[in-house]
Amino acid sequence: MNMTISEKDSLYNWHPYTQHKIYSHFPAIVKGKDEFLWDENGKQYIDAIASWWVNPFGHSNTFIADAIYKQLTTLEHVLFGGFTHNVVVELAEKLVEILPSNQRKFFYSDNGSTAVEVAIKASLQFHYNKGIKKDTIIAFDDAFHGDTFGAMAVSGIGMFTEAFQDALVKVVRIPVPTKGNEEVSKLALKKAIAENEVAAFIFEPLVLGAAGMVMYEASELDSLIEICKQNEVFTIADEVMTGFGKTGKMFACNYLQNQPDMMCLSKALTGGTIPMAITTFTQEIFDGFVSDNVNHALFHGHTFTANPTGCAAALVSISLLKNPEIFENIGKITASHLQYEKHISNHPKVKTTRVLGVIFALEVEVSEKQGYYSNLRNQFYNYFIDKGVILRPVGNIIYILPSYIISEESLQYVYSVIEQALNEIPC
Which of 188, 420, 421, 424 would you label with 114, given CA atoms 20 to 30 Å apart? Predict the structure, then answer.
């Protein structure tokens, strides 16, 4: 008897963020186009979260595929230790055009976690190179910055990090400056700086993704960055999720008056094709590693650092983003979200709603706090999959974060399925 792809998968593969005693069978996706995916049985799904927020231009985008093919037949990879290549130089020139003006130096790695890891290491070593001990990082409560050790340390979601607490760098957490918590957050930041030797403050600008799309105002982040500047504390903007159009601007930091010292980029960077990440720096930080002492160099790297094929994908992805049509589409999605928000916010099971750019989130009214992978969350997830919609609720938070090319018809179907779920699933 022939086994299905899903059955073979269960024999061999260990999936991320998965308790395999509970989940052991996964739909096997064999094809994708635009906002749609198809499994081995021919069932169609709407990918309403852009496959973990990486896919702004839809699946199997021919412009990106053509650029990757052309690069693969020219130069697929060359080591970046001791060499450079034309594609990474062209990408750097494009990054200078679209990033905040203080971002001048770029370090390439593999994914969002490693982008954060590089920023944390650089912020600590910058001071070490000067003979100054600054050993503390400040981060938001409930933040999520990745799964490598430095990124875990600055993440505040316990289930992801509790097994490793004794092996992490020193972190002080402060409240997110959501409505009503603005002054508490500022006071906590000032206190943390006063009582510790702080190297940097890391944050997800405007939206904390894995915390449940928690949103706060740009003016409040501006105030926190200003406090850091006054106290010579570096600021790190983790734009892995928010970058490249998600919030309605190229970067969430474009909403700010004060700009961060470092930025972490990944996910949509290559249009959802090839794993790649970039950590960006001010000239001042880079200069802190330039020395006659070889030990002052940043000894960090990855085999596929600045991979030419990934750079080619990033270049074409940026060119697509610069097409006015894309931001027109983002505006249309935002307008649809706002219209749906007006409707669904009156639902008796909806506690709160929020919208920014292509991000829509609603909080389901529950009698007790729901864990990240609670039974209620799993019921919603399974309901959506059954209806052919890929959504991954966070506890009792249901969010949509689609590709920018999603049709209005598909978006309306996603909205309707969420409302059906609210009507049918007891909370």
Answer: 188
